[in-house]
Amino acid sequence: MRNKLNRGLALLLSLIVGVAALIPVQAVSEQEKNSYREKIARLDESIALNQQKIDSNKRRKSSAKKDAKGLQEQVQGLQNQISGYNGKIRNLNEKIALMNGEISAQEDRIAALEREMAPTKRQIAAAQQKLGGRMRAAYEAGNISNIQLLLESDSFVEFLNRMEMLDRISRNDNAIIRRLRRSIAGTQKKQDSIRKYQDSIQADMQEVQSAKNELETSKQEIVAKQNELNIEIQKLDLYMSQLDLDSAEAKQSIAEARAAQEVFMDALNGRLSQISSVGTGTIGPGGMIWPVPDSASYISSGYGPRNGGYHYGVDIADPKAKAGQAVAIVAAAAGTVKVASNICTHNYGKHYNCGCNGGYGNYVVIDHGNGLLSYYGHMARALVQTGQRVAQGQIIGIMGSTGFSTGPHCHFEIRVNNGQSRSMAARNPLAYVGRH
Fold it and tell me: Is 1-275 assigned to CATH 2.60.40?
């Protein structure tokens, strides 16, 4: 809403001044001049406030970028941990696969052992069947004593043969039983060994699976934290986008305020042109001298485009003024003082604009004849008066930082009175006076 009002105000002011430009220019009162200056000053204040907003947004964006960078570094650190967990989980999966393979191999061994033992089991079954048959026959026949065998034998030799046969049967039965027992024990031992090995593998695999589950849990916790950080980064990105949008709107407001300001400046300059000399702007004998005679002075900002606008003069700074010492400003050439204003009581220095005199603060304008005018802005105070005749090199003021200023300096500007537009009237001061 504020930006819309600024744009509406700028358009309205342009229309008002445009219409005013069509009315024949008459002698302007000091009240009218001050009205233009006040309007320019208010626009300067608007520009300063919007610039402060841009600077504040820039600092906030820088801080947000730093925070986002820190979060991104944390996200990357978490991603490295996740990659580490993924590697460990892959290793454990490979172990589990190997263990499953080993268990499968042991199951194959058990199956092979079962196949291998099948004939033996069949033999055992057959032997057990035969032994059982004899045992049943012996049971059914009852106990056979040696005397009975002797009485039933036809001869003593037959008796001995029967005794030997019974002994052989007994020994054979016992051998079969022992062999069966050994075979059964051997088979049982192999099966027990395989089962024990399988149990060991199963236990190891459970440990590996448990370790894998713990890793998965830890990984999911880190993934959740990473997602939270990514959400915070997205919020910061949105915040920075909003700051950029806000700064863009502030820049638009500054551009519109400067455009409206130029209208008022042109109107003010047009009024000044009516009471100033007219000509080609050439300077007579003696030319111009450097307006800050102190040898330590230097150009801090040149003529031309600057910060999205246009700088119509050169800024001359001096280390002594920055240190709080008085530094004199002199007339670049002889002439008549057209403006000598000391209405600005502020001397804020860097990063503040009081807006006095359309940003010039305390300033002096000298008419050198033939349409040549020189401006000296941001003085701590002017030491001459309107209408006063001054000589070249005469002290006209003290360097300061009043108006729209970024520290103690002298804004030195040259104009040729050939029209109302400041952009048409302004000239590069270094074309008239070389840096001393």
Answer: no
What are residue 345's phi and psi, to 5 degrees? Answer: -100, 5
For residue 83, give the amino acid letter.
Answer: S
> Looking at the whole model, is its pTM more than 0.90?
no
Tokens of 51: 């610039």
Task: Output the CATH code of domain 279-436.
Answer: 2.70.70.10
What is the average per-residue pLDDT within 105-124?
77
Which carries the bigger pLDDT value, residue 284 or residue 283? 283
Nearest to 364 by CA among 389, 339, 388, 344: 339
In this prediction, residue 81 carries a pLDDT of 92
CB 246, CB 84: distance < 8 Å: no
pLDDT at 24 over 60: no
Could you give the C-alpha distances from 189 to 43, 105, 183, 342, in angstroms and in order? 103, 18, 10, 116
Are 377 and 401 in contact by the 8 Å Cβ rule? The answer is no
Domain parsing of the chain, residue ranges = 1-275, 279-436
397-430 burial, b if ≥16 CB within 10 A, otherwise e? bbbbbbbbbbbbbbbbbbbbbeebebeebbbebe
